[in-house]
Design goal:
Blueprint (H helix, E strand, L loop, with lengths): L1 E5 H5 L8 H18 L5 E7 L3 E2 L2 E2 L1 H11 L6 E3 L2 E9 L15 E5 L13 H4 L6 H8 L16 H4 L1 E5 L2 H13 L6 E5 L6 H10 L6 E6 L2 H10 L6 E4 L2
Parallel strand pairs: 1-2, 1-9, 2-6, 9-10, 10-11
Antiparallel strand pairs: 3-4, 5-6, 7-8
């Protein structure tokens, strides 16, 4: 069994809220789901996908997660008169080529993209006081990354006071692994955990290209409305979804 987890989508982006107990419980529930949905497998590989590398060095979040993983005890598990082995790892390489590490998956950005205002929700009071309304002030300040602060005497630029972070190549790594794992004759089942609809085309292609012995591709979703939409949308590709607690 191969379990592919979009980490931020499932666990959230604030790793300070995680602890070994939370993670161990989550992984044991995932293992239990695999046992209920799939048969005839002896091991589970759980891969966690995220922006683990800032250039070629581990991010702080990746280091914290590694420390948490060392404190949990999921495998081996005795189940149904057999021993179920497995491992949990940060996915830093393609499943099909484990010797090449994908760095540069975490990128810090300067400034923020311009904010858009929904004018239908703005009342008359704010419209008549645009120089004082924080919504309009923020809209004006995010006009461009080189926008100067509107306060007299302040020389700060928008790009210097705001910063962000984004993942690079992570969705593509997930897509590639979903497809390659589905073609692996040693794999009995694939379990992808993510609410991100960007993964749907790769899952659909994997269902078409999957090897004969693969029992199914299961998609785990946390949001009930998203689950209902995707389960109906993916009917032509025989993708089963399950609502996660």
């Amino acid at each position: 069994m191969v379990v592919i987890i979009d980490f931020d989508n499932y666990f959230g982006t604030d790793v300070s809220k995680l602890n070994p107990e939370i993670m161990e419980f989550s992984f044991k529930e995932i293992v239990k789901l695999c046992e209920n949905e799939f048969s005839d497998f002896q091991s589970i590989q759980i891969r966690l996908y995220g922006g683990w590398y800032k250039e070629t060095s581990f991010t702080n979040s990746a280091s914290i997660i590694q420390q948490l993983l060392r404190q949990i005890n999921v495998f081996p598990k005795v189940a149904a008169n057999k021993v179920l082995n497995g491992n949990i790892e940060l996915a830093t390489s393609l499943h099909i080529k484990p010797d090449f590490i994908w760095g540069y998956t975490h990128k810090e950005t300067q400034g923020v993209k311009r904010i858009r205002i929904n004018h239908e929700c703005i009342d008359t009071v704010c419209k008549e006081n645009r120089t004082h309304c924080p919504k309009f002030l923020l809209y004006k300040f995010t006009d461009t990354k080189d926008k100067k602060c509107y306060i007299d005497g302040c020389v700060n630029l928008q790009k210097n006071v705001f910063k962000g972070a984004e993942q690079k190549m992570v969705d593509t790594l997930i897509a590639c692994d979903v497809i390659s794992v589905s073609e692996d004759e040693t794999v009995a089942g694939v379990f992808l955990i993510s609410d991100d609809q960007d993964h749907l085309p790769s899952i659909a292609l994997a269902s078409i290209k999957k090897q004969q012995n693969l029992q199914s591709i299961l998609l785990g979703i946390k949001n009930e409305q998203v689950n209902e939409f995707i389960s109906n949308f993916m009917i032509p590709f025989n993708i089963k979804t399950t609502l996660l607690q």
